[in-house]
């Protein structure tokens, strides 16, 4: 924070103010979860608390609101509704922006005649954590200063939601002549960056075919060079006849006509099941049905359906799920674009009993580590038929995760380049009381089967496979040889021994990995206390001190230290890092030793427990940002991705582990073009270009106080250098920054929280015919 903002804050504390006692009472669509911790659920689009003022009347004037509000699902727009006796419609609503850390500090004005006040924490259903509201009645002078500081701060500093572009939309003259207008414009901009988009709006804008779209697809199909026959494999057992008919009708409605539906009825006893299947078989020759005499469960039934398949590819579908009308068309397009592919999968969502779509999973492109953490392949899964038959089809004994087991076996028979992701929702997973879509705990046997399948896949490699943090997730732990290789932990520092001491003591006290050394690189420390502390460290043979007497250059300092390191593994660690999880280094080294892995990054938390780093997403704000930034520590993030091991395009250098030989061969950090910022992203992209995968390892959990010894980028010289580094990254990695394969084009590039994008670029970026998604 700039000095003038801190100075102004100090002055404001001297001004008279009055604290208002406020209590919140649930009024509409609010359900308590844990009131002691402030956890609630918004049950509808219009959720409200009533605010009880300390007195019966609310005085007109300026007020200052402070609160903490974390939304675990839903949007990030809070509103204060003011009832003046004429209702509480939107005309009387005061939008209250918050940053992504959930902090609210807002100035607002209340007119005369307020009858009641209401607090709406979010404008869509979702869970949230709400602190008490702290409201002060402030003077006009304080309101002026606070609004002026906010406007200037927004103008001259980059927004947290946009890395590259400051908020210079408001002219200085406008600020001077109409401060309130400028203040409200700034609030609107913060809301536009943080509001997110509702999935129903996303569907309406980006995932609803018009008649023109359908006609365009119909014209495109005859022009496809190859029109593969796609066999849809559907095992059926005691279905809801209504859901079954909907599933069958969704296949019949496909715009792409070259399909066959292969159904195996697994000796259903449900009335109407057999009759329904026979009715559909008679009405369309593309529907093929076999009736099993003995119930054999889903694997045997799927194999019976597979025996009917004559197509080049098979697509798996459950008896109560739905496919949108364009699903098979996009599969056919992908096959034409990549004729050698063997496996493909799409994004998916859920559909409830009333037909409402929700909970979309916008997936990464092929991500082996994420697939080992969860079945990200699943729906819609499409397989080359000859490959499925070559690996033996579906295995008995893996019921519930038979498709996960199938992909694991197919992986061994193909290459990663022949596994493709279609970034479109091509499958609607039915959610009802007994379905896995509604609750993964409904089929515990499915998780156990997936665990057996993954352990079988890893047999003979020394890899341990354990339960993951959530049902249906897994954790893979890679072995470390004996004796364990030496890890050289490189820690640059300058004074601030309070920070450094906490870092070193946490490493020494909480690192279970046995074989490490610390290379402490002193970059022009000047304090006597620092020299005294360095002298104390001389008693520890595992710590070596080096002097780097030159202006701060993160890349050069670490490159120098790497050349002095004796370890097989390098660990780059900031001096404001504190170890939380004792197994952090062993987890990271296990990945770093694998020949196909480049850089390994840790899960970093702020001191308040919110996420600081859970991988790096390219393109956010025009360059890059940390995934799930400011998410609560225990929250899963988008389909668990904040807590699951996975590949990312890049990881932060604040805690990064890599083989020393690979680091040297890759060219080390770029100390010429990237002396301070983005050198870690640049390194990771060079590793990725060379064919290595970079891994985010959430079990390596540490606290990051973030740049305490170096300070903020708040001087003209630092800003100029930062701008140069941005320009270098944008010119060097232009293509990579426009399409991150480990993110999804349907997700926003405004914020790194996996919120929805109102203008997806998947149609253009992935080379599809210009139909859906181009508006």
Structure notes:
With 775 residues, the protein is α+β, with helices and mostly antiparallel strands. The chain folds into three domains: 3-194, Sandwich (Jelly Rolls); 223-438, Spore Coat Polysaccharide Biosynthesis Protein SpsA, Chain A (Alpha-Beta Complex), CATH 3.90.550.10; 487-738, Spore Coat Polysaccharide Biosynthesis Protein SpsA, Chain A (Alpha-Beta Complex), CATH 3.90.550.10. The chain is built from 23 helices and 34 strands. Strands 23, 24, 25, 26, 27, 28, 29, 32, 33 and 34 form a ten-stranded mixed β-sheet that branches. Strands 13, 14, 15, 16, 17, 18, 19 and 20 form an eight-stranded mixed β-sheet that branches. A hairpin with a 5-residue loop joins strand 17 and strand 18 (357-361). Helix 1 packs antiparallel against helix 2, helix 2 packs across helix 4 and helix 13 runs parallel beside helix 14. It is globular and about 85 Å long.
Q: If you average the pLDDT, what whole number results?
A: 85
Quickly give the CATH architecture of the largest domain. Alpha-Beta Complex
- Report the CATH superfamily of the largest domain: Spore Coat Polysaccharide Biosynthesis Protein SpsA, Chain A
Report the biggest beta sheet as strand number plus sense, adding barrel if it closes.
10 strands, mixed
Residue runs with pLDDT of under 50 for 5 or more positions = 157-170, 437-441, 763-775
């Amino acid at each position: 924070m700039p000095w003038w903002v801190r100075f102004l804050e100090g002055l404001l504390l001297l001004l008279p103010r009055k604290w208002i006692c406020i209590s919140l009472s649930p009024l509409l669509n609010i359900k308590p979860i844990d009131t002691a911790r402030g956890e609630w659920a918004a049950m509808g689009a219009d959720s409200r608390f009533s605010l009880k003022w300390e007195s019966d009347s609310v005085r007109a004037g300026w007020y200052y609101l402070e609160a903490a509000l974390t939304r675990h699902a839903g949007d990030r727009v809070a509103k204060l509704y003011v009832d003046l006796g004429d209702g509480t419609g939107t005309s009387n609503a005061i939008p209250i922006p918050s940053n992504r850390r959930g902090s609210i500090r807002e100035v607002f004005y209340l007119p005369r005649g307020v009858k009641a006040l209401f607090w709406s924490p979010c404008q869509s259903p979702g869970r949230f954590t709400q602190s008490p509201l702290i409201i002060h009645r402030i003077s006009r002078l304080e309101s002026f200063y606070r609004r002026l500081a906010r406007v200037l701060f927004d103008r001259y500093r980059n927004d947290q939601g946009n890395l590259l572009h400051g908020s210079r939309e408001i002219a200085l003259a406008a600020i001077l002549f109409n401060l309130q207008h400028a203040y409200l414009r700034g609030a609107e901009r913060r809301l536009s960056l943080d509001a997110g988009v509702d999935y129903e709006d996303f569907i309406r804008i980006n995932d609803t075919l018009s008649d023109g779209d359908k006609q365009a697809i119909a014209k495109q199909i005859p022009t496809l060079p190859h029109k593969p026959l796609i066999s849809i494999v559907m095992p059926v057992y005691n279905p809801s006849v209504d859901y079954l008919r909907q599933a069958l009708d969704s296949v019949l409605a496909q715009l792409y006509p070259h399909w066959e539906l292969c159904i195996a009825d697994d000796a259903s006893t449900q009335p109407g099941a057999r009759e329904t299947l026979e009715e559909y078989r008679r009405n369309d020759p593309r529907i093929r049905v076999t009736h099993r005499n003995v119930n054999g469960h889903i694997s045997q039934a799927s194999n019976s359906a597979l025996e009917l398949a004559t197509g080049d590819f098979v697509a798996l579908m459950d008896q109560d799920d739905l496919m949108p009308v364009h699903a098979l068309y996009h599969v056919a397009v992908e096959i034409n674009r990549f004729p050698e592919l063997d496996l493909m999968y799409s994004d998916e969502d859920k559909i409830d009993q009333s037909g409402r779509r929700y909970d979309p999973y916008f997936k990464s492109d092929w991500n082996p580590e994420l697939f080992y953490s969860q079945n990200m392949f699943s729906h819609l899964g499409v397989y080359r038929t000859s490959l499925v038959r070559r690996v033996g089809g579906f295995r008995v004994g893996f019921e519930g995760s038979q498709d996960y087991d199938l992909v694991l076996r197919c992986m061994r028979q193909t290459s990663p380049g022949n596994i493709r992701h279609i970034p479109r929702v091509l499958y609607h997973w039915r959610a009802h009381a007994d379905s896995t879509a509604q609750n993964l705990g409904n089929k515990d046997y499915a998780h156990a089967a997936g665990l057996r399948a993954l352990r079988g896949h890893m047999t003979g490699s020394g890899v341990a496979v354990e339960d993951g943090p959530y049902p249906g997730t897994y954790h893979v732990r890679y072995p470390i040889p004996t004796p364990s290789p030496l890890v050289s932990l490189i820690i640059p520092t300058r004074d601030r021994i309070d920070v450094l001491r906490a870092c070193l003591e946490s490493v020494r006290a909480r690192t279970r990995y046995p074989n490490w050394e610390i290379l402490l690189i002193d970059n022009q420390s000047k304090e006597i206390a620092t020299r005294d502390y360095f002298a104390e460290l001389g008693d520890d043979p595992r710590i070596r001190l080096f002097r780097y007497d030159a202006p701060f250059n993160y890349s050069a300092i670490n490159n120098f230290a790497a050349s002095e390191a004796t370890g097989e593994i390098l660990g780059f660690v900031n001096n404001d890092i504190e170890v939380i999880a004792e197994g952090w280094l062993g987890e990271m080294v296990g990945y770093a030793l694998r020949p196909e892995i480049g850089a390994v990054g840790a899960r970093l938390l702020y001191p308040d427990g919110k996420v600081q780093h859970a991988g790096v997403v390219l393109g956010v704000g025009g360059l890059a940002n940390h995934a799930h930034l400011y998410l609560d520590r225990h929250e899963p993030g988008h389909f668990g991705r904040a807590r699951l091991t996975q590949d990312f395009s890049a990881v932060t250098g604040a805690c990064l582990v890599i083989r020393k030989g690979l680091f040297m061969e890759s060219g080390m950090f770029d100390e010429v073009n990237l002396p301070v910022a983005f050198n870690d992203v640049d390194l990771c992209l060079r590793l990725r270009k060379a064919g290595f995968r970079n891994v985010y390892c959430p079990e390596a959990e540490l606290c990051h106080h973030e740049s305490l010894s170096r300070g903020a980028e708040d001087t003209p010289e630092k800003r100029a250098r930062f701008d140069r580094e941005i320009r270098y990254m944008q010119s060097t990695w232009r293509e990579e920054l426009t399409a991150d394969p480990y993110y999804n084009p349907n997700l926003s590039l405004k914020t790194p929280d996996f919120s929805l994008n109102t203008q997806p670029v998947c149609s253009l970026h992935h080379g599809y015919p210009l139909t859906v998604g181009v508006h």
